[in-house]
Amino acid sequence: MFLMRAVDLIRKKRNGGTLSGPEISFLIDGNIKGTVPDYQMSAFLMAVYHKGLDAEETIALTGAMVSSGKKLELGSIQGVKIDKHSTGGVGDKTNIILAPLMAAMGQKVPSIAGRGLGHTGGTIDKLASIPGLRTDLDIEELTQDLKSVGFFINGQTDEIDPADKKIYAMRDATATVESLPLIAASIMSKKLSSGLDALVLDVKTGTGALARGLDESRELARLMVRIGNSLGLKTIAVITDMNAPLGRAVGNALEIKESIAALKGRFAPDLLDITMALAAWMLHLTDTVSEETRPQRLNEDLLKRYKDEVWDYLEHGDAFKKFIEFVDAQHGDAEAILNPSLLPNANHMKPVLSPWNGYITKLDAYAVGHASMLLGAGRSRMDEEIDPAAGIVIGRKPGDEVSADTPFATLHTNDPSRLKEAEEVFLSGIEISDREPPKRKLIYDVILPS
Ligand code: URA
Question: Nearest CA to 10 among 37, 48, 38?
């Protein structure tokens, strides 16, 4: 019998070969135990980036990542455990709104989330801008929070999906983020580790998404829906627009401030539409788990019924109260939620002026995400500190009218040397025309289990 060696498996993948389940487990287990060093794992990730993984290999990778840690056993907690996970976008704060909203409605939401990746933001970095808030809780504390608050949002830890914790950070620093099988395994391993019954995936499509084209986004959605359902997790995917940032704030504390406003019922129109659609799908999926039926395409009536129900919980402040309970339970300063001016604020702010009169026809999500990262909101190395106050507030969105030399966005940073480049990158993503553009499409498709 031959001894398995990481270098041979890397070469096999580099040359376009197919790896077996045990070979994939050898690499993942070895990296966690330290027998496969990070430089070999990085080379493996690059080989996967170029040569891909087939569905069986992706399922094996997901399984090996789940097995790198413990799974939450939540059977003793009453109710359907449901979550929503996004494939990553710019300004996407729907997790922070939906988890307390669903918990206020009586659902249980055990949520394992990630840090920012590349130009996209991450829920864990956003929450880290709340003073004191911890996202590295152990299983015992998470289980307790789920029982008492109804939801938690935690990162991958040394206990839960440690393989994703390591690989996620490595991908960010080795230009291997935009790989469909790596995205699918990363997301599904977190979700399969967290004891869920049902999952709504928000697969982003467009310039700011990790899978940019609609065909690629559909492929990613189908792959994850297949992985989830074949491993016993009722999963559907909604494909939503990421050609422009979602909502008005991009950057960590800025997005927490926008989420707080939303939890009190004050939403940018696109953020409202996407949040409502995802909430409706979460409620529908919860019903199908309870009634043991298959998810159906939602007709207008059903969609409206769910949305009306959801709006009640926002309007009456129940979702906002849940968020405060969560911040408290995860050791954060709830005062900063009641008074958001206590959240980190940047020392330097620069308005970006519109170069022309006209309608905004393009506000490129990638350019905005990249500019926000340059201001300090994201990382270019695994261990880089981020500036929680950095980011961009967008005053005008696609379809809005702007006048020359008036501000339509504001850059926030604590390092003024970053402003010039960030402004140039931001402006490179803008198009203004004298003709009003057609209304932006927000939802492209829904992928149900086959
Ligand atoms: N979200 C994740 O959790 N992982 C990815 O790879 C991309 C988005």
Answer: 48
- Per-residue confidence at 117, pLDDT binned at 50, 70, 90? confident
Global pTM exceeds 0.70: yes
pLDDT for the residue 2: 74
Q: What is the pLDDT of residue 172?
A: 84
Cα-based distances in Å from 209 to 169, 178, 236, 386:
18, 9, 19, 21
The answer to whether the CB of 180 falls within 8 A of the CB of 61 is: no
Q: At the topology level of CATH, where does 82-339 sit?
A: Pyrimidine Nucleoside Phosphorylase; Chain A, domain 2 (3.40.1030)
What are the φ/ψ torsions at residue 52 (nearest 5 degrees)?
A: 75, 180
The answer to whether residue 362 is catalytic is no
Q: Where are the alpha helices (DSSP H) in 93-213?
A: 94-104, 123-127, 139-148, 162-173, 180-193
Pocket, ligand 1, Cβ cutoff 6 A? 87-88, 114, 117, 183, 186-187, 190, 210
CATH 1.10.10.10, applies to 6-52: no
111 is catalytic: no
Element (H, E) at 228: helix 214-230
Other C-beta atoms closer than 10 Å to the C-beta of 388 total 24
Q: Which atom of ligand 1 is nearest to the CA of 87?
A: 8
Locate 407 and state its tokens: 């501000």
What tokens appear for 177 in the block?
């983020």
- pLDDT at res. 422: 98
Residue 171 bears catalytic tag: yes
Helices (H) and strands (E) counted in the chain, each on its own, are 17, 13
Domain regions of the chain by residue span? 6-52, 82-339, 343-433
pLDDT tens by residue, 130-181? 999 999 999 999 999 999 999 999 999 999 999 999 999 999 889 999 999 9
CATH class of 343-433: alpha beta
Of 93, 165, 190, 418, which is the active-site residue? 190
Tokens of 219: 């492929």
3-class SS at 364? coil
Helix axes of 269-291 and 252-263: crossing angle, nearest 10 degrees: 70
C-beta of residue 112 within 8 angstroms of C-beta of residue 191? yes
What is the CB neighbour count within 10 angstroms for residue 18? 12
Stretch (H or E) spanning 200: strand 198-205
Is the pLDDT at 1 greater than 70, yes or no?
no
